[in-house]
Design a protein that fits this description.
294 residues, alpha/beta, TIM Barrel, 2 domains, 8-stranded parallel beta barrel, 10 helices, 12 strands
Length: 294
Amino acid sequence: MAVPRIIPVLMHKNGRLVLSRRFEVHQDIGDPYHIIDRYKCWDLDELIYLDITPHWQSGCPEEIFERYVETIKKASRNCFIPLTAGGGICTVDQMHQLIKAGADRVMINTRALLEPGLITAAAHTFGAQAVIVGIDVRTNPAGGYDIYARGGKVKSNLKLVDWLHQAADLGAGEFFINHIDRDGMATGYDMELVKFVKSATDLPLIICGGAGKWDDMIPVLSHGIGAVAAANIFAYTELSYAEAKKGISQACKMRPATIGMDYAQSRRERERGSRLGAEKTVLWRELDKGGLME
C-alpha cells in the first residue's frame, strides 16, 4: 500500500492567491510567489495549484491561461516537490504547456465532463499517472451526491458512481474529490462521501473539503484513502505542515516532513541578510557624514 500523503492546495484567482468558502467567498491572501516560496521549504508530499479564475466568463480566456502558465513556470523554479496544476484546462496542448512550465501532473474537471475523451487523450500523451480528474460534489436532499461543474455553478446530470467508473475506464490515474458544502467550513471531512467513493473505485483518491484541524485528516487516511488535501488550514501558521505530519503520524504511518532545521536555517539566513543590509546602510551613511564618500 502506498504511503499516505498530505497535500496543501493553493487557489489562484485573477493573479492572486485566495482562500475559499463553499466556492462562493474568496478571500485574498496575497502574492502567490511569496507563499509558494514558503511552501517550498516545507518538504511537502505534493502541492496542488488550482486556477479558479472563471475562464468561461472572460472575453480573453487565452490570456488568463497564459498568465497562469507563467505563474506555474515561476512557481516551479527550484521546486523539488511534485506539483499538480489545474483549472481552466481545455486541451492536451494546454496540459503540455503546464507540464513544460514545470508541473508534474495536471488536473481536469469541467472540461472532462464536457469532453470525456480528453481524459483518454491526456492519458495516452502523458501517462495515466499524470492525469487527475477533479470532481466537485454537493450533498443532495436524498443524502446522495450531485456533481457540479464550472466552479460549483452548474449541476451535472451524471451520477457520481457512474462518472467514477467512466473516468476510470477512460484513463484517469487518480481522483480529486472536493465537497463544495464543506469547502472552507472547517467542519471536518464528509466520511459518508469518503466511504462512498472508496467503495466505488479502485483508483487512488485525494479527498478535499472540510479540514479544520489536523485530527480531521486521521479518519480519512485510516479508511484507506491515499491522500487528504486542504487549503485554508495551512495558510496562516508557520510550520503548520510539519505540525500536521507530526500529529497525524502517531495514528497513520507516513513519510516524515524533514522541514524544521532546513526551514529554520533558511529563515535565519534571510534575517541575517536583512541585518547585514541594514548595518551596511548605516555604515555608508556614517562614511558619507565624514566626507569619506567624496
